[in-house]
Design goal:
159 residues, mainly alpha, two-stranded antiparallel ribbon, 7 helices
Length: 159
């Protein structure tokens, strides 16, 4: 498999879908988040940070050699559906009063959707780009990010 470099407008669109609700959240973090984040695993935090940088870069620099041709288009559509569900999870969070516990509420069968859905979407974007590097970057991000959020959920359940 040959990876193709270029500028991915699709990757930039995915990153905007990811960053916009996070910027809104960062401006007004829920009560209790600072306390719960103090207990994060340093290893998971390092994996999350490495994955964030790598996923951001790979989303932008790899392009799909097949573009919008079937069956590759199905990978992109699936990734877009996951990102739409991610936006829905954020909308539910903000509309529900932006409480800490709401950040971790499942969306149907999806646990911690605010962490899980974008990671899965970026794995699928990596498949669409036909870039193992992009897919692996998203997996590293997922191990750290989802692991941290599952830890937060477990800590909240123990309160």
């Amino acid at each position: 498999m040959t990876m193709h470099l270029g500028f991915s407008v699709v990757g930039v669109a995915f990153l905007l879908m990811l960053f916009v609700p996070n910027i809104r959240w960062a401006r007004n973090q829920p009560d209790g988040y600072a306390e719960i984040s103090r207990h994060e695993s340093r290893i998971l935090l390092a994996l999350e940070r490495i994955g964030q940088v790598a996923t951001t870069c790979t989303a932008v620099v790899f392009i799909s050699p097949q573009g919008f041709e079937l069956p590759w288009l199905l990978w992109l559509v699936s990734a877009l559906v996951l990102m739409a569900l991610y936006e829905l999870a954020w909308a539910r969070y903000f509309k529900g009063g932006a409480r800490l516990t709401d950040m971790y509420a499942p969306l149907g069968p999806v646990p911690v959707p605010i962490a899980t859905l974008p990671v899965a979407a970026f794995v699928l974007l990596g498949i669409w780009h036909q870039s193992p590097v992009a897919g692996l970057s998203a997996v590293v991000l997922g191990v750290g990010h989802i692991g941290i959020h599952l830890g937060h959920l477990q800590e909240l359940a123990g309160r």
